[in-house]
Amino acid sequence: AQSVTQPDIHITVSEGASLELRCNYSYGATPYLFWYVQSPGQGLQLLLKYFSGDTLVQGIKGFEAEFKRSQSSFNLRKPSVHWSDAAEYFCAVGVGAGNNRKLIWGLGTSLAVNP
Amino acid sequence: NAGVMQNPRHLVRRRGQEARLRCSPMKGHSHVYWYRQLPEEGLKFMVYLQKENIIDESGMPKERFSAEFPKEGPSILRIQQVVRGDSAAYFCASSPALGRQETQYFGPGTRLLVL
């Protein structure tokens, strides 16, 4: 079955510290992977995506993610967190074929940033 | 280029009333997706539509829920005889073309509260 797991429900880091949010997926075909961020009461903003090619992808706001097929993972990283990064982060995998496609989501990781 | 637009942003209904949620995709996008975010749960796919066609409604509840994307005008998600369990954030996303790797761009969501 297709699924996405984000093992960490909540993470707290200090401003300026590095960050890694974990994401594992289960999907039989080549995965198309996404990270979205949601601020309280807001919509979902795309941070980055992986389709093919270089397994290290760069996104907006200084985020990057690395696709590791052997580990079925797509972890999100940032070298130095800013207070404005406090938000909910969602990992998703694009599934389907032809006209049938949708996103399967992890439950999200809530990030708090201490000053 | 305006993003995905959803209205209303907040909607309050009493049990038994109807809720109509509207979504205008980004300019040039002909594919619309609806997702629901329930409290304490992740995002769940509901339905995928192209102009005048429902492509995949596997995530839609069998009763009371319907969706359309007419040739002209926004996509509509309609919930008849709402119940308290329908209280959630409903997000619409759009994409430009075929392929499950296509990025979905999200609107700000409609927060539905059923009293």
Structural description of this entry:
The complex is a heterodimer of chains A (115) and B (115). With 115 residues, chain A is an all-beta fold. In chain A, a hairpin with a 2-residue loop joins strand 10 and strand 11 (100-105). Chain A is globular and about 45 Å long. The relative contact order of chain A is 0.33. Chain A is built from no helices and twelve strands. Chain A has strands at residues 3-5, 10-14, 19-21, 24-26, 32-38, 44-50, 56-58, 64-68, 73-78, 87-97, 100-105, 109-114. In chain A, 0% of the residues lie in helices and 57% in strands. Chain B has 115 residues and is mostly beta strands. Chain B has no helices and eleven strands. Chain B has strands at 5-7, 10-13, 19-24, 31-37, 43-50, 53-56, 65-68, 75-79, 88-95, 105-106, 110-114. In chain B, strands 2, 4, 5, 6, 9, 10 and 11 form a seven-stranded mixed β-sheet that branches. Chain B has a four-stranded antiparallel β-sheet with strand order 1-3-8-7, with no helix packed on it.
Distance N to C terminus of chain A: 41 Å
Note the beta-strand portion of chain A.
over 45%
Query: Termini of chain B, distance in Å?
Result: 37 Å
**Strand percent estimate of chain B:** over 45%
How does the helix and strand content of chain A classify structurally?
mainly beta
Total DSSP helices of chain B: 0
| Helix-strand topology string of chain B | EEEEEEEEEEE
Count of β-strands of chain A: 12
Based on CA atoms alone, the radius of gyration of chain B comes out at 13 Å
Rg of Cα set of chain A: 14 Å
Number of helices of chain A: 0
Amount of helix of chain A: under 10%
Largest sheet: number of strands, sense, barrel closure of chain B: 7 strands, mixed
By secondary-structure content and strand pairing, the structural class of chain B works out as: mainly beta
Largest sheet of chain A: 6 strands, mixed
Model regions low in confidence, pLDDT < 50 over at least 5 residues of chain A: none
Assign an overall shape of chain B.
globular
Oligomer: heterodimer
Broad shape of chain A: globular
- SSE arrangement of chain A, N to C: EEEEEEEEEEEE
Mean pLDDT of chain B comes to 91
